[in-house]
Design brief:
- The complex is a heterodimer of chains A (165) and B (186).
- By secondary structure, chain A is an alpha/beta fold.
- Chain A has a single domain, classed as Beta Polymerase, domain 2 (2-Layer Sandwich), CATH 3.30.460.80.
- Helices cover 24% and strands 27% of the residues of chain A.
- In chain A, the strands form 2 sheets. In chain A, strands 1-2-5-4-3 form a 5-stranded mixed sheet, covered by helices on one side. A two-stranded parallel ribbon of chain A has the order 6-7.
- Chain A is elongated.
- With 186 residues, chain B is of the alpha/beta class.
- Chain B has a single domain, classed as Rossmann fold (3-Layer(aba) Sandwich), CATH 3.40.50.
- Chain B has 8 helices and 5 strands; from the N terminus they run H-H-E-H-E-E-H-E-H-E-H-H-H.
- In chain B, helix 4 links the parallel strand 3 and strand 4.
- The interface between A and B is medium-sized, with 18 and 23 residues.
Chain lengths: 165, 186
Amino acid sequence: MSKVGEEITAHFPEINTHRIDEKRVEVNTDKGYLLSLLNFLKDGGYDHLGLISCVDRMEDGVLQLVYVLSRYAQDESVPGPDPTLVVKIPLSREEPTIVSSMGVFINAEPYERELYEMFGIDFTGHPRLDPLFLERDYDIPPLRKDFDTRRYVTEEFETIPPVED
Amino acid sequence: MDRRQLVKWLKEPLKMSNKYSLHVVYFCTGCGIIEIPPSITARWDAERFGVKPVATPRQANLFLITGYVSLKTLKPIIRTYEQMPEPKYTVALGSCPIDGGMYWDSYNTINHLDKYIPIDGYIAGCMPRPEAIFTGITHLWTLIDEGKADGYERYRERYQEYRSNQERLYGQLEWPPLYTGRDDDV
């Protein structure tokens, strides 16, 4: 058990943590705890949000958000390198909404826009959920597992006629 | 200069000077751009062939598209191509612009670039070596000699079809048509 993991479980008894390996600690929680957990970690020295990503676990009916947090400054009270925190939050695939974490980490903005576009996750409180990368409208957000890319390519791009032979 | 080509120079000086001073604008999509710096610097030195990179499409007559083309990058490619002064030649580098390459089944990669702008030649490979680029350039010379590198003329003639293909991807495009079909198109 790592020191930061013990601190989290002491402060939030409902959240379970476990050490994946020497450099990573996994934190499993649900979306109600997101902001208080991020605030707690930021005050505790984990002041860098590395990225927000998403895994589509279609067989469980879950979109799993992954927040990766690390420290800029070394924690002097523990020997060795500080572990990176991997916060995992499951969302339902039918109605994926979660509160935006821009109030805690301002650099969450592009990540949340990307996830909105690629997975259809609605971040409440985000000021600018505009298209970031995509030019077209897709029925299903294109990085979800049930998006059939081959059929899409065959129906959309292959049907465009060649201009010359 | 090759003395045997003297007759050609006297006959068609414009075409010959065009051919030996290809000013290139590179469209750096995908991995192809990695092959460009060695080919334009001292190791292979593209200027031996009169190939020189320029800053803007307004000064260029060769357009080199180096890699896969996503929906987002096709728009600037069309705009860049339309801004180049004639005569202009287009060469696509690598297998992705030909048919999508290894990215063909992606939601965001258009597969056949020649449906949207005319291509005068392809340099196949994934990625082609700088030697292949120079082979492609010398082949382009032959095409220009024979008058076969006429992509810009085909674009003018069949602009309606190209434009309708472009609009099938994007819906309404935000810039006006380049050629309207009236007499004032020049």
